[in-house]
Amino acid sequence: MSLLKTGDALPSDVVFSYVPWTEDKEDITACGMPQEYNASKEWADKKVVLFSVPGAFTPGCSARHLPGYIEKLSEIKAKGVDVVAVVAYNDAWVMSAWGKANKVKGDDILFLSDSETAFSKKFGWAQGERTARYAIIIDHGKIVYAEKEPARDITVSSAEAVLAKL
């Protein structure tokens, strides 16, 4: 059961952890310091695509889920999307390294940590201690698309599915 529905407002307390990308720390072995990312504040006046994966560097997430968003990024942005972000239960350093390993630079895609799966659990979208696989489109603070994968396949949370809903 999901507590998150189309038409809902993004809660005012959505905070993730992340390591901001910087050119001087673009090498995978260079580590920045994690910071809070107040998504509620940052996304209040933006169109956002947020997708979730069970874990960075896992086979399905690395080979099938994230690559679609990297490949379709310009098409997604062309639909007026200001922010594309991926979230997983991994800590901010792992998420940062995953972005670097996939050669994502700057803030093309934000790699965010859902610490203790707090965000995902709030909506019943966690799988044990991991985040579930899902996608959400937020338009100026309102949820306009929210789908959790019904099984192990990547269907409703794929870049193609999200692109079709933009």
Automatic annotation (TrEMBL):
Q: Name one GO cellular component term.
A: peroxisome
TM stretches of this protein: none
A single GO BP term for this record reads:
cell redox homeostasis
| Presence of keyword Oxidoreductase | yes
| Keyword match Plastid | no
- Pfam families, sorted: Redoxin
For this protein, the record's SUPFAM superfamilies field holds: Thioredoxin-like
Q: Which residues form the active site?
A: 61 (cysteine sulfenic acid (-soh) intermediate)
Q: Which GO terms describe its molecular function?
A: thioredoxin peroxidase activity
List residues of the Thioredoxin domain: 4-166
Annotated keywords: Antioxidant, Oxidoreductase, Peroxidase, Redox-active center
Q: What does this protein do?
A: Thiol-specific peroxidase that catalyzes the reduction of hydrogen peroxide and organic hydroperoxides to water and alcohols, respectively. Plays a role in cell protection against oxidative stress by detoxifying peroxides.
- Homology family: Belongs to the peroxiredoxin family. Prx5 subfamily.
Q: Which PANTHER family match?
A: PEROXIREDOXIN, PEROXIREDOXIN-5, MITOCHONDRIAL
Q: What is this protein called?
A: Thioredoxin peroxidase
Q: What is the lineage of its organism?
A: Eukaryota, Fungi, Dikarya, Ascomycota, Pezizomycotina
